[in-house]
Design a protein that fits this description.
The structure holds two protein chains of two kinds. By secondary structure, chain A is mainly α. Chain A has seven helices and three strands. Chain B is built from six helices and 26 strands. Chain B is globular. Classes of the chains: A mainly alpha, B mainly beta.
């Protein structure tokens, strides 16, 4: 069970990168040329002008490490960007009751806004057949790190960004537990969160354009 | 085009009629706007209209112009987070900035341009922070293109839908700004970079992952729209603009670009803006908006009289230029090519027209666009076969039909294809 989880975690770590690598196989490193065969009136018109441009215009300034860190809040599936700290199901339950339940209901299924909690029997994926099925975290979200990233940047709507990192870890643990994805005793932190494998991860495909 | 319509679909009395009434009495009228607010319309903002304008001097010069008080097109408010372009009220190919559709996830932020910066970092040789003023010093470029929300199909299961109700989440502007390739060149991109994250300075701190190929191709950081600064609803003071791609990826109020070697899997590209298929998969990073068209006249709520009718509409494709628009006036049995109004631009709304003599019999009129890649706008049933009956309208671009009844009434042809959409 544990090995399977780790294997799946490894899949989770490599899948987005490999999909991206496949999509970008023919990527030129640094050339202003169209690559997808579509007309590029903008870029093409610039080509001639660029020959007369300086190597660098020199506008703007080089940001300090602190300036970058202050804005660099994203969290990726491999855990890059996760802060120190941590949270538990119990700590998250308290934050949820005080902050989130007014919109998402006492246990994440009552609404009035997005239904957060619920699994499909056998982790089926019936959404194209039955549009009434809610796309919950447990039935639809492919990456657990997305939950941390989204809560921290955009929730709650009236005071976005107000939750501490520990509170966000706790909420992530609580919501993953309500969706029967992590056990009640889970300690979520920058090491454990990227190991969580979501039920729907293998359902997603990069659309071929 | 709906001048004769005194009561609109929501049962609200049109502003024009009320303003006309206010003018006639030179008094005060209460007008209900599309979002349900009641506002006072007085003779102060509707000047008295002379019987003969050649017999009295006109108004003096002004520092900023406005619309004739007799013209009051408005966006179609759908929620606190969205409003659609009234496609049926517009002419030509450009959407007036104030009627460009709106869609936001944390409200429209108020941003002081002197305190707004753009940060470019990650897999770059020289991280860079730019003020608006500094961004504007780079070589600029302008282009006309459409911007369409990924989810742009609604009908609420009723016949009484205007073109704007159905697909008013598409608009077109002339955008001016700096090509992203110009900035990539400035910062130097590491060879292994394949994706970048774009992030907004709104309350949603909206983020999407974009392939570097689009950044090198025709992506732009726009600061102007139709000759003036971008409107707040469209991303003031600067936004990402990805021609032909789903609107959500053109991050508004842009403050940060992080270059990386994999997509970031943000909420808006996983839990949202993904499409389920009948084979049990969900597609992500769909990006390109496929070819679409809509007849904007005649359409609900117009009423036709037998005789000559110029059918008018818009066609567009995220893959390039519109090559052809087919029109059927006999419920899809036969098709003829519409006239395309030059210039036909890549990834741009293209106006089409087709002259038709209506004999008074009930029929259906349809439009079908074909783009230069050969893509043909699909029918609803063709889409249902692949997509099932999903609860979102992401990337649904079916042929739309209008029924012309014998009494001249024009109504939307309801197709019960998508249970949840709308």
């Amino acid at each position: 069970m544990r090995i399977a989880a780790l294997l799946a975690a490894a899949l989770l770590l490599t899948q987005p990168g490999s999909a991206a690598a496949k999509a970008q196989a023919a990527e030129p490193a640094a050339a202003c040329v169209p690559v997808d065969g579509t007309p590029t009136d903008g870029a093409a018109a610039q080509d001639g002008r660029q020959k007369e441009w300086p190597v660098h215009f020199g506008f703007g300034h080089a940001p300090s490490a602190e300036e970058i860190a202050a804005w660099d809040i994203d969290v990726r599936p491999d855990g890059t960007g996760l802060p120190t700290g941590g949270g538990t199901v119990a700590s998250g339950a308290a934050v949820y009751a005080a902050t989130c339940s007014v919109c998402h209901g006492a246990t994440g299924v009552e609404g009035p806004y997005n239904i957060l909690v619920g699994r499909q029997p056998g982790d089926a994926f019936p959404f194209a057949d039955d549009p009434t099925q809610p796309k919950t975290i447990g039935s639809y979200w492919p990456y657990a790190t997305t939950l941390f990233d989204y809560i921290r940047r955009a929730m709650p709507p009236e005071t976005p960004g107000a939750l501490s990192n520990d509170e966000v870890y706790g909420l992530t643990a609580y919501l993953l537990h309500l969706n029967e994805i992590v056990p009640e005793e889970i300690q979520l932190n920058r090491e454990s969160l990227p190991q969580v494998v979501m039920p729907a991860v293998d359902r997603f495909r990069v659309h071929e354009r | 085009m709906n001048d004769n319509q005194t009561i609109n679909r929501a049962g609200l009395i049109s502003r024009r009629k009320l303003i006309t009434a206010a003018t006639a009495t030179a008094g005060v009228a209460l007008t209900r706007t599309a979002d349900g607010r009641v506002v006072q319309t007085t003779a102060q903002n509707v000047p008295e209209t002379p019987e003969d304008p050649t017999k009295v001097p006109g108004a003096t010069s002004s520092v900023i112009g406005g619309r004739s008080p007799f013209e009051q097109p408005e966006r179609i408010l759908t929620s606190e987070r969205g409003a659609r372009t009234p496609l049926q009220d517009l002419y030509g190919m450009i959407t007036p900035s104030g009627l460009h559709f709106e869609r936001h996830h944390g409200g429209v932020p108020q941003i002081d341009p002197d305190r707004h910066n753009l940060l470019i970092h990650g897999m770059v040789e020289r991280p860079l922070k730019l003020s608006l003023r500094e961004l504007k010093r780079f070589p600029a470029v302008s282009r006309i293109c459409f911007l369409e929300c990924a989810g742009n199909l609604y009908w609420y299961g009723r016949e009484e839908n205007t073109p704007g109700d159905i697909c008013g989440m598409t608009s077109q502007s002339e955008w001016t700004g700096v090509l992203l390739s110009t900035l990539f060149r400035e910062v130097g991109i590491e060879p292994k970079a394949t994706w970048f994250l774009a992030e907004g300075a709104d309350a949603a701190v909206m983020t999407r992952s974009i392939p570097m190929s689009k950044g090198w191709d025709d992506a732009m950081i726009a600061y102007a729209q139709n000759g003036e600064a971008i409107r707040p609803e469209q991303g003031y003071p600067m936004r990402l603009l990805l021609p032909g791609w789903e609107g959500n990826t053109s991050i508004k109020w842009l403050r940060r670009i992080e270059v990386a070697d994999a997509p970031f899997m943000t909420r808006e590209e996983t839990a949202r803006y993904t499409e389920v298929y009948t084979d049990g998969t969900a597609h992500m990073f769909s990006f390109v908006m496929n070819a679409r068209s809509i007849i904007t006249f005649p359409a609900y709520p117009n009423r036709l009289q037998p005789g000559w009718v110029e059918i008018r509409g818009l066609a567009w494709s995220g893959r390039g230029k519109i090559q052809r628009v087919d029109i059927s006036t006999d419920s899809g049995h036969s098709w003829a090519s519409a006239q395309l109004q030059p210039p036909v631009l890549s990834k741009a709304h293209t106006r089409f027209r087709h002259l038709w003599q209506w004999n008074g019999a009930e029929t259906q009129i349809l439009s079908r666009s074909v783009d230069e890649s050969g893509y043909v706008q699909p029918t609803g049933p063709e889409l249902v076969k692949m997509r099932g009956r999903p609860d979102t309208s992401y990337h649904l671009n079916p042929i739309t039909a209008w029924t012309v009844r014998r009494d001249g009434a024009v109504v939307f042809r309801v197709e019960d294809l998508w249970q949840g959409v709308g």
